[in-house]
Amino acid sequence: MNEAHPRYLWWNGQQVPWEEATVHVTELGWSTVGAVFEGIRAYWNAETGEAYVFRLDEHLERLLRSMRLVRLATRWNSSELSEAILQLLRVNECREDTYIQPIAYRTAGPKTLSGFSEEAGLYITTRPMPSHLLTGKVVRAKVSSWRRISDDVMPPRVKNISNYRNGQLAVMEAVLDGYDQAILLNSEGKVAEAPGACIMLVRAGKLITPDVTQSILESITRDTLLRLAREELGLPVEERAVDRTELYVADEVFLCGTAAEITVVGEIDHYVIGDGKPGAVTRALEQLYHDMVRGIDPRRPEWRTPVGLAPAARASRESD
Ligand SMILES: Cc1ncc(COP(=O)(O)O)c(C=O)c1O
Q: What average pLDDT does this structure show over 242-249?
């Protein structure tokens, strides 16, 4: 796909040509204050000629959970949305690594603070997002002076768009201060996460990450890596409150998320982590994650939904 945008997006039940999917300018503002979204990846496998959506059901369940939490009603269920996404990937001929973003937003009602809407609008877009797995990418981070929103202020565990202003402030501060990335502490001063990714550290062969009550998003990549570490690599895993200084003395630190995938942190607040390069545990996890998401490793097929781009899948659809 060479266009700057896909041919179609999915909007309230229809595949709509990109140029025709417009709203009036006065819809901007309050409609997005209450919006929630998902970030999902499909990975291309050149060998099989197929793209696989990673943990699609879990992402859609989280979308519906996010909507419920911010009181956005919808008529769509998870399997209808799943089918909409697969059809959209096919009609857009996404033969590359792709990011899929459903956004649910408030529609009707007066443009006031009241957050209620009869039924949420919902659209889904796709766009190319090349993977950086196994490229050796390393970032420098700083612990932000901004604290991560806490559960008594906003709901950090879901993908509420307003939450992201918090992360944006932290990244802007980090970049202005000469770093690539920010790490936010929670209101208790414990490590929470990065603006769009969870954080994990390795110390003495143990994988450690903040538990889900530390003001973090309930991350699907985090869950994936914890399971792979425990079940495939046999690593001891700890989910608990993490001190800031544990980051400084860690052997390895990395960020994880759908977009972030696995991103190695080589330096935090000028403390070099390990030797500043991807460590052995991170590399083992990254190789495993890479092979699983792309369908090179055939285990856990329930994590990969084939889009139906492979010749055999197309032929069977056409004969139906
Ligand atoms: C704030 C935040 N934390 C963590 C993550 C990682 O979540 P997931 O692994 O489900 O993509 C994301 C999204 O990618 C995020 O936006």
A: 98
